[in-house]
Amino acid sequence: MSADFTAYLPLILLGLVALVLAVWVLARRSRKARVVAGASDTPLARDVLEEGAAPAERNQALIDAPPAALAMPSPPPASASIIPAAAAPSETDAPIVTQVPPGVADPVPGSADDLTRIKGLGPKIAVLLGECGVTTFAQIAAWDEAEIERIDAQLGRFSGRITRDQWVEQAKLLAGGDEDGFIARFGKNG
């Protein structure tokens, strides 16, 4: 080795140690989960639940929900073109009461429409509506303001979509078989 290199070797090693230390400090400062002191002065990581802490509320609905494969809507009861009246309107899980409006084809008992053809109504909402007994376009087409409010209250985080996305108008066109009118007004779905 040359004399100059051996003279500067301790400075080079000291510089490398300082560089590694600086990188470690910067990496440590930018960590998202930092150790903080809790109420009992024991360090807790922010991303780890304290012993006995409740689960996060935003995830509780996902935890309690049945698997999607098991939550498929059941077909409506085979009765007539008019769905029987529900019990008291104060019951939140009462079946939807609808009559088929004039000009809309009567639903075939035991058949269900693909409600996801309605824009703004996805598979999760279709499952929620199926749990309420809504499985056909004719049922949605017959909703009045009171039923829209009642169903909207049961949709949870999806509330407001019925009026915003005009489900009743879309359902009237689809139940009546007016594909061209539906496409002209709401566009092609799918």
Draw up the topology in text.
Layout: H1 3-29, E1 35-37, E2 43-45, H2 57-64, H3 123-131, H4 137-141, H5 145-154, H6 161-164, H7 167-175, H8 179-186
Antiparallel strand pairs: 1-2
Walkthrough of the structure:
With 190 residues, this protein is mainly α. Helix content is 42%, strand content 3%. The chain has eight helices and two strands; from the N terminus they run H-E-E-H-H-H-H-H-H-H. Strands 1-2 form a two-stranded antiparallel sheet. The protein starts with a helix and ends with a helix. The model is unreliable at 80-98 and 100-108 (pLDDT under 50).
Distance between the termini: 74 Å
The tally of strands reads: 2
Q: What form results from the Cα inertia axes?
A: elongated
**N-to-C series of helices and strands:** HEEHHHHHHH
Please work out how many helical segments DSSP would assign.
8
Low-confidence stretches: 80-98, 100-108
Mean pLDDT: 74
Largest β-sheet summary? 2 strands, antiparallel
| Widest beta sheet: strand line-up | 1-2
